[in-house]
Amino acid sequence: MKWVGAGRFLAVPLDADSRIPLHRQIYGDVRERILTGALRAGTLLPSTRALASDLHVARSTVVQAYEQLRAEGYLESERGGTRVADIAGDVRVTAPATSRPDSGPPPPKRLPELPSSMLQLRNALTIGPRAPRPFRAAVPAVDAFPISLWTQTVNRILRRAPGKQLAYGDSLGLMPLREAIADYLTAARGVRCSAAQIVVVNGSQHALTLCASALVAPGDEVWIEDPFYVGARAAFELARAALVPIGVDDEGLCVSEGIRRAPHARAAFVTPSRQLPLGVTMSVARRLELLDWARRSRAWIIEDDYDSEFRYASRPITALQGLDDAGSVIYVGTFSKVMFPALRLAYMVVPPALLDRMHTVRFFSDFHTEYLNQAAMAEFIRQGHFERHVRRMRTTYAERANLLASALRDRLGDRIDVPTPTAGLTLIAGLRDGDDAVAIARESTDAGVELVPVSAFTMEHPVRPMLLFGFGGLAPREIGEGVDAFAKILERYDAKLKRAAT
């Protein structure tokens, strides 16, 4: 129900063929709503004229119903109209007469089972609008985003938006934005594409879901890196794919293992620029090996390039898609980490042979991405604001990454293994062999420090005890305080182990 000038709308179901008069049907429906609390005391009802018009009945029919309800004390009239009376002290609120108190709750409706891992995966992805705590991953520095500049861009777009842009849009995305993305990817990431291949979507998770829908039939084998990215595993499990976990070493995905275990897999999901969560970069040899397998097996490769803009120890790594001569790679990128997560704007570069199919799947997922943010993002890129923001944030994240690594080394010495930061918004720190990373992460969370054990992202391939630290959304002071808190947690953990050994 919603408020209108004369009170609420009342969607009273009427049966013209019933032997019960219409005014009694209206009376019974309103009475039941009052008794069950759907209409609370003081609620303003529509006038008899308005309700009669809404229900397409004579006004006298509504007048009869209201008069009966007033006579029984359910309604009261005053100068402002007809309202629900306060009957809490006079009438016991009961359930509808159709229910039986001794019958118990109705049995649940039958539903297909979700994959058993889905609840765990959803909880791992649930981040919500909370203030970031040390060391929550997947949170960029939204405090450093030029919000006033973005607001000016949005307002300017909104003022000059033609009326046709307020109707349905192109399922593939706004053409000026697709052109801007294609130009940016060609120059900055070595991607080979045209604007016609760009598909604008609502976040990278949306892109992965579309890929799974377009490429995979239930039971199809799909390679996935192990340790895995949570969102990718969820997308392909929802599509009922048969996931084949493939190990990751210092050169990235072990292609030879994938060929041995599932040579005819339908697709492979990879994060070659910076493996998530380990952070390793796929070597050129492995990239060529993967592309060769995809070409020979007629398989697809989904390349998630989630934070490639933030490589601060060397020049950005060229995208895997730039080496693809067979049209096997679907490239996925996002603005969530570069701009801000609430923007929900990402994109795919789709091979020409797959474009029509992906267009169809995209159309029926939600028609299109909304116009305003697309148009503003296109102008943000064209005006050079995007490039300048990326450069500023690359410097900011490099400073925060080095501060975190230095603070961990200074505070904990050789107790943990802290590699030199090279890219991204997360840092992997190794614990001692035999440490219980899960227990340490649990104690940290209880103490207000959010850490995730890397083992939480594994399916078959064990990893040494490691913890994932996120630093992107933290100010320098918060990083220092977080390291101090984590050091105390680790000291308590070590003391507990020492007591147990004596």
A few lines on this structure:
The protein has 502 residues and is of the alpha/beta class. It is built from 15 helices and 15 strands.
How would you describe this protein?
The chain has 502 residues and is an alpha/beta fold. It has three domains: 3-84, Arc Repressor Mutant, subunit A, CATH 1.10.10; 161-383, Aspartate Aminotransferase, domain 2 (3-Layer(aba) Sandwich); 388-501, Alpha-Beta Complex (Aspartate Aminotransferase, domain 1). It is 41% helix and 13% strand. It is built from 15 helices and 15 strands.
Task: Compile the SSE list and pairings.
Blueprint: E1 3-4, E2 7-8, H1 22-35, H2 48-55, H3 59-71, E3 75-78, E4 81-84, H4 118-125, H5 147-160, H6 175-188, E5 198-201, H7 204-215, E6 221-226, H8 230-238, E7 242-249, E8 252-253, H9 255-261, E9 267-270, H10 284-297, E10 300-304, E11 329-334, E12 346-349, H11 352-366, H12 371-382, H13 385-412, E13 426-430, H14 437-446, E14 452-453, E15 466-470, H15 476-501
Parallel strand pairs: 6-7, 6-9, 9-10, 10-11
Antiparallel strand pairs: 1-2, 3-4, 5-12, 7-8, 11-12, 13-15, 14-15
Helix pairs in contact: 1-3, 2-3, 4-8, 5-12, 6-12, 7-8, 7-11, 13-15
Bin the helical content. Answer: 40-55%
Distance between the termini: 67 Å
What does the oligomeric state look like here? single chain
CATH architecture of the largest domain: 3-Layer(aba) Sandwich
Q: Beta-sheet strand percentage?
A: 5-15%
Radius of gyration: 29 Å
**Biggest β-sheet description:** 8 strands, mixed
CATH class of the largest domain: Alpha Beta
Shape: globular
CATH fold label of the largest domain = Aspartate Aminotransferase, domain 2
Q: What's the β-strand tally?
A: 15
The SSE order reads: EEHHHEEHHHEHEHEEHEHEEEHHHEHEEH
